[in-house]
Amino acid sequence: MGDAEMECFGPAAAYLRKPARERIQAQTTAFDAKTAFFVTEPTEMFLKGKLTKKEGGKATVETLCGKTITVKDTEIFPMNPPKYDKIEDMAMMTHLSEPSVLYNLKERYSAWMIYTYSGLFCVTVNPYKWLPVYDSVVVNGYRGKKRVEAPPHIFSISDNAYQFMLQDLSAEVESDIVNNIYEHTHQPSGESGAGKTVNTKRVIQYFATIAVAGGKKMEQASKMKGSLEDQIIAANPLLESYGNAKTIRNDNSSRFGKFIRIHFGTTGKLASADIETYLLEKSRVTFQLCAERSYHIFYQLMTGHKPELLEALLITKNPYDYHMISQGEITVKSINDIEEFIATDAAIDILGFTLDEKASMYKQTGAVMHHGNMKFKQKQREEQAEPDGTEVADKIAYLMGLNSADLLKALCYPRVKVGNEFVTKGQTVPQVWNINKTMQKAEKLKQQVRELEGEVDAEQRRGAEAIKGVRKYERKVKELSYQ
Predict the structure, then answer these.
(1) Would you state the pLDDT for residue 220?
(2) 193 marked as binding residue
(3) What pLDDT score was predicted for residue 408?
(4) Which residues participate in ATP binding (predicted)?
């Protein structure tokens, strides 16, 4: 695609492909393939330079910064001609090596071209800033185009999977067989902070845009307030608020894995979606490192954007009033908790939760915050814990619809099964604290996901034999620095 054809991408064109003028200039740049080499260097890993001497298993290279380096001849790598600078598919390089790949990604990144192909794979470098490459103009620019017809982008990968699915479906229709289920999987992988979560959302956004179930969003005579495509997109803000947190390396790290299935009908239109979650980092509910933060939802609720919510949950605007969520940082520079709470609250409405269900969800979250403030003491001359005041327990019981006396009894005198009978067991203060922490962790995200799955147009999942599936799989890479 030349500059004229790239106009279909609007302002995003500059972030997707280098201009024709730059490509022509690269082809006319002087280049000596016999002396142009990368050389290993301890600080920078690799530097560009000119080979000046090579003998006796040693090579001497004069780098572009004027430094002369002598290394083993196995530690120099031939450079590609300038016409390959910022190449879109690194598999097309004449010399494919570690330094050539790194420099190509670096040079594309310096021009904010964050997507690059490497054969069948699409490599993404996280820009840590917002780029205008995901709006509706860009979606339409990639729609229906083959991979070689457009610059690298996650939208191109998504559209190709969608088009292959339609081809499979078309072949079935021609043969009068529509019973097979064709599945295509997108699997982002990478270390924490690489951009897996954002690209997951972009794939979902693309499918929700190009495979709308109808030309006009119809009002449904049910409790659903948003169309199916709106619900699929809205599921992400809600899941992120309850399952994402700040870590040392990533301000919005997914602390759980999610498996999202998007189902399409026989015409290629959206039919339904479902979500599976696993490996939730439950320990973060009760403990955070000093440079990290607990799950976003806690801090969103305390922004005070909805003062009536503070009153309903019996909480304050100060996170330090709640020990379990204030062991690390309480604010994140890159995250506006008020804006994120507005998105979370709107997502709950779009997904069709009733006012009572929304209130119940928030109350359960508030109860988790109060759990960390419960106090217990040891009875004199007994190895038995007892409540040190009931004010916090009363708040938790109110929010969860329980009796505070029953709650405290369950913590201090739990019933355990011995043989075929239940007996009451005494607890020490540390044992009560362990039970209390377990209660906070156990159902934090599971309940929200179960309710969410029931909202994402479950009725349209019927007739599974005639539904095609494009699967979206996100792998969570645990940070090595954690604990």
Answers:
(1) 46
(2) yes
(3) 94
(4) 190-197
